[in-house]
Amino acid sequence: MRLSQYFMPTLKENPSEAQIVSHRLMLRAGMVRQSSAGIYSWLPLGFRVLKKIEAIVRQEQNMAGCQELLMPTIQPADLWRESGRYEDYGREMLRITDRHERDMLYGPTNEEQITDIFRQSVRSYRDLPRLLYHIQWKFRDEVRPRFGVMRGREFLMKDAYSFDLDYAGAKHSYNKFFAAYLRTFARLGLTAIPMAADTGPIGGDLSHEFIILADTGESEVHCHADYLDFEPLATEVDYDSDLEPFVTERTRLYAATDEKHDQATFEAEVPEAKRVNTRGIEVGHIFYFGSKYSEAMGATVQGPDGEAVAVEMGSYGVGVSRLVGAIIEASHDEAGIIWPESVAPFDVGIVNLKAGDEACDAACEDFQYKLGAERQVLLDDTSERAGAKFATMDLIGLPWQLVVGPRGLKSGTVELKSRASGEREELSPESALARLTS
């Protein structure tokens, strides 16, 4: 892709409305533009990152044995009346009346919708367990949307739902998602700490939030400092095995969001030197809520003894669009974003220091062609001065910058810069190509 043809409206100054780093950098890098309060259009650069995160989330859900479907954004209010949540959910729910005077709503979550799908389709315990998920836009009418995509009104979520015959099966499903989430966040370059959390309007009595520690987080969190030294879960997981020991190991130390925090227990269990009191960003949330929805909505199966059994359920959310902001909060410097390679909008930015120079143009074209089979490349072929080009590349945070100039070409070298480390090397074109394709 040529930068001269790419729609990337960058800003030189920090927008006054942006209060946190991720919001500022997403606006400055031309990733998003606000449509209305808490609602954003995703421009090409931001959309590429969003889709890469979505793909990783999808891959890990599939690996855990989940099956993808797609539910609508607009739901009938009658389903929520069945569960008893229609009046309880509060003013965050956007309520709509259609032309036939039927009450509808823009879904903030999908427990009722998936329970209705399940009860229409599954009759026997032999068809259990079932793990179903979708990735869909949600809407919650936040009274005070802020922090860009971190706390917007419209957002992209992965919602998954488990259906099991009994508590043992439901707990195993819960543990699958626990492990899958740690794998997902590790692939995104994030260290996420699972913390005991309040279940809120979802309900149930078992819940964990996955928290990225950050001063700009919306939640107060309290945990044992040793969590910061845990290795990210990057290895393969046998999802059919007993995962309880793994979950126990990852939850044995104190870690809780403010709603579940008990100061006395915290002081008793955690030495003073190991106490971490900070803020965090929620990037995932898992719930076990048993038969709360299945009993209310008649989602039963025939058990082994022939009797009807209300299925045991759980729900599991990942904020896909929120993760874009969370990754930036965790990975940036004064110059701009530093993308992990797994989600970078492009792998390599080629900087042509003298666009229009025959040798420079030819070398850049050659690099773009040869890298294109293995890497996603953005070629800065604009007539901007060198300093502006470097500033743009640092701002948008591509993992590698390949700098091509007339002086270097005469001596047979190009410059390769790692955005993460800042290290620069002068290499032959062949060596630079080999480094980027190895």
Describe the overall structure.
The protein is built from 13 helices and 23 strands. The chain has helices spanning 21-28, 44-63, 77-83, 111-121, 167-187, 244-251, 263-269, 292-297, 320-330, 358-371, 386-396, 406-410, 429-437, and strands spanning 32-36, 39-42, 67-68, 74-76, 94-97, 103-106, 130-139, 154-164, 193-196, 206-213, 219-224, 255-257, 275-290, 300-302, 308-310, 312-319, 332-333, 336-337, 348-352, 377-380, 400-404, 414-418, 424-427. The strands form six sheets. Strands 3, 7, 8, 9, 10, 11, 12, 13 and 16 form a nine-stranded mixed β-sheet that branches.
| Poorly predicted tracts of residues | none
Strand runs, count: 23
Helix content: 25-40%
Q: Main sheet?
A: 9 strands, mixed
Write down the overall geometry. Answer: elongated
- How many alpha or pi helices? 13
Instruction: Compute the separation of the termini in Å.
Output: 21 Å
So what's the oligomer here? Answer: single chain
Rg from Cα? 25 Å
Estimate what percentage of residues fall within beta strands: 25-35%
What structural class results from the helix and strand content? alpha+beta
Mean pLDDT: 94
